[in-house]
């Protein structure tokens, strides 16, 4: 096995296993319900927050975000920790880190530890982006905060912060890295599409 292939293998396997940790399911079960069978059936932060409130959902928020962060850090470590100015991933660490974050998102979406029934991977993406482009991540948090305060809605602020990340990344990284970030976000779009189809099928089944 080529020595250059080992970091990629570690990044993908490690990222997927980290992403597969079913934090929302564990928290939900501790409170007597399974988020995969309640509300919008999404085992993630938003569904748990709707059922239990902010305080109980904080571990889900932190855990799902850290999946991507730890996956990215693992890949960064095994690939030689190549970074440019402000800690932006560079050189030989770019592909392993992106693959690890993608794997963590896939693990969250289709977790091996939870019957392959997972969430939409938004927080795993955000946590991974914190490793990919730390200054872009911090600016994204600022956008989220300001927008949430102005709109008086955390949900609106979160959308602005997340969707603004590729544009903010352009300030610190080459366009091909931003394209990679866009590819990661396509996985989120795929999960939302799957959720929409499942919801339509459920409504049709109830009407029949």
From TrEMBL:
It is an enzyme of class 2 (transferase). One of its GO terms (molecular function) is acyl-phosphate glycerol-3-phosphate acyltransferase activity. Its main location: membrane. The chain crosses the membrane at residues 6-27, 56-80, 86-110, 122-150, 170-190. It is found in: Cell membrane. GO terms for biological process: phospholipid biosynthetic process. Its EC number is 2.3.1.275. It catalyses: an acyl phosphate + sn-glycerol 3-phosphate = a 1-acyl-sn-glycero-3-phosphate + phosphate. Pathway: Lipid metabolism; phospholipid metabolism. Pfam families: G3P_acyltransf. It is a multi-pass membrane protein. InterPro entries: G3P_acylTferase_PlsY. Keywords: Acyltransferase, Cell membrane, Lipid biosynthesis, Lipid metabolism, Membrane, Phospholipid biosynthesis, Phospholipid metabolism, Transferase, Transmembrane, Transmembrane helix. One of its GO terms (cellular component) is plasma membrane. Probably interacts with PlsX. Belongs to the PlsY family. Catalyzes the transfer of an acyl group from acyl-phosphate (acyl-PO(4)) to glycerol-3-phosphate (G3P) to form lysophosphatidic acid (LPA). This enzyme utilizes acyl-phosphate as fatty acyl donor, but not acyl-CoA or acyl-ACP. This is Glycerol-3-phosphate acyltransferase. The gene is plsY2.
């Amino acid at each position: 096995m080529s020595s250059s292939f080992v970091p990629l293998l570690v990044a993908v396997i490690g990222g997927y296993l980290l992403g597969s940790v079913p934090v929302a399911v564990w928290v939900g079960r501790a409170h007597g319900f399974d988020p995969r069978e309640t509300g919008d059936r999404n085992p993630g932060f938003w569904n748990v927050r709707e059922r239990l409130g902010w305080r109980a959902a904080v571990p889900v928020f932190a855990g799902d975000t850290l999946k991507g962060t730890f996956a990215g850090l693992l890949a960064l470590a095994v690939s030689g920790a190549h970074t440019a100015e402000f800690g932006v991933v560079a050189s030989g660490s770019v592909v392993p880190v992106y693959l690890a974050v993608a794997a963590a998102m896939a693990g969250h979406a289709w977790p091996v530890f939870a019957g392959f029934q997972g969430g939409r991977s938004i927080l795993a993406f955000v946590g991974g982006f914190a490793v990919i482009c730390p200054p872009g991540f911090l600016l994204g948090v600022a956008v989220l905060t300001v927008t949430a305060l102005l709109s008086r809605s955390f949900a609106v602020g979160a959308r602005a912060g997340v969707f603004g990340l590729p544009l903010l990344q352009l300030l610190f990284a080459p366009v091909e890295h931003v394209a990679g970030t866009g590819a990661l976000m396509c996985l989120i779009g795929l999960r939302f599409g799957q959720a929409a189809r499942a919801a339509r099928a459920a409504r049709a089944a109830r009407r029949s």
